[in-house]
Write a structure and sequence with these properties.
By secondary structure, this protein is of the alpha+beta class. The chain folds into 2 domains: 114 residues, 3-Layer(bba) Sandwich (FAD/NAD(P)-binding domain); 123 residues, 3-Layer(aba) Sandwich (Glutaredoxin). Helix 1 packs antiparallel against helix 2 and helix 3 packs across helix 4. The radius of gyration is 21 Å and the shape is globular. GO terms for molecular function: FAD binding; oxidoreductase activity, acting on paired donors, with incorporation or reduction of molecular oxygen, NAD(P)H as one donor, and incorporation of one atom of oxygen. This is FAD-binding domain-containing protein. It comes from Streptomyces griseofuscus.
Length: 265
């Protein structure tokens, strides 16, 4: 073989760094987690690491968040890396077992994938990284949407959420068409969008009146109230780990899975 265009070496070692942050050293992607390239989730998780870290670094460098926000990078992404390793180990076991018992297990799972939509949907969401919740819902009071990745919502004015996120800022949605207009929490990089959802939108979003979407597309908070006071209380139930006053709701929209506290710097 001469002049190969691509050489790659890989094995089935499975390891994860104990910590993704030590001071000014931050690990992301394969530097933080390595595994057999089964099923192809590795790159997705690495890109999500980088996205999670990117907006936090930018906020700290701009002075709109305290250094503590960077600790939430480990808090949010380490569990995702651990699940990635679990997932690829399970797939490796399924791929490499040729005993009759292993073949029976593969057959059974294959049947579930083909016939149980919820099962295949759950697997697809894990593989794509869309099931990730930042931070994981810890309390019964947390609204089901909080922490989840927002879908590409379509609004009555023809605009779409992913289009609004493109600039790299966070997006404050007023889905009542004005009732939540007095909602605090705006910063220069916040895109405020006031328009109801387009008809036939997503069921989980039908009752939502206002929401703050982080720059990485995760829901910082979502409310179902229309009264501005109740709305603000609902938002404040979800601590924000950024520099900012208690009244303005901070500026980075990054909730911290580790400290669960408001860091007003
Ligand atoms: C065969 C195979 C198939 C795969 N298939 C998929 C797939 O289908 N889907 C998927 O999501 N993932 C897949 N993956 C995993 C995916 O390729 C990795 O998760 C991803 O490339 C990791 O990106 P990274 O930037 O973290 O690291 P890398 O892609 O490894 O990038 C690190 C870079 O740093 C450079 N570097 C290293 N040391 C130094 C140094 N000292 N100074 C300067 N530069 C340095 C390296 O040369 C490299 O370019 C596959 C992996 C393999 C091996």
């Amino acid at each position: 073989m001469r002049e190969p265009r691509w050489l790659s070496r890989f094995g089935n070692a499975t390891r994860q760094a104990e910590t993704y942050r030590r001071g000014r050293v931050l690990l992301a992607g394969d530097a933080a987690h390595m595994h057999f390239p089964a099923g192809g989730p590795g790159l997705n998780v690495g890109v999500q690491d980088a996205t999670n870290l990117g907006w936090k670094l930018a906020a700290v460098l701009r002075g709109t968040a305290t250094d503590g926000l960077l600790d939430s990078y480990h808090g949010e992404r380490h569990p995702v890396g651990a699940e990635l390793l679990l997932n690829t180990r399970a797939q490796t076991a399924l791929m490499t077992t040729y005993a009759p018992e292993g073949q029976a297990l593969r057959g059974l799972l294959g049947e579930f994938i083909a016939t149980v939509p919820d099962f295949s949907q759950a697997l697809a969401e894990r593989m794509s990284g869309l099931s990730v919740v930042h931070p994981p819902a810890e309390s019964a009071s947390a609204r089901p949407l909080t922490g989840r990745r927002a879908p590409d919502l379509r609004f009555a004015d023809g605009r779409r959420l992913f289009e609004l996120l493109r600039g790299g800022g966070r997006v404050l949605l007023d889905l009542t068409g004005g009732a939540a207009a007095g909602l605090p929490g705006r910063t220069p990089d916040t895109v405020v969008h006031t328009a109801p959802l387009a008809p036939h939108g997503r069921d989980a979003w039908r009752r939502v009146t206002a929401a703050l979407i982080r720059t990485d597309g995760h829901v910082a908070w979502a409310a179902e109230e229309t009264d501005p006071e109740t709305l603000t209380r609902s938002r404040d139930a979800h601590p924000v780990h950024v520099r900012g006053s208690r009244r303005d709701g901070g500026s980075g929209g990054g909730r911290c899975a580790v400290t669960r506290g408001r860091d007003v710097g």
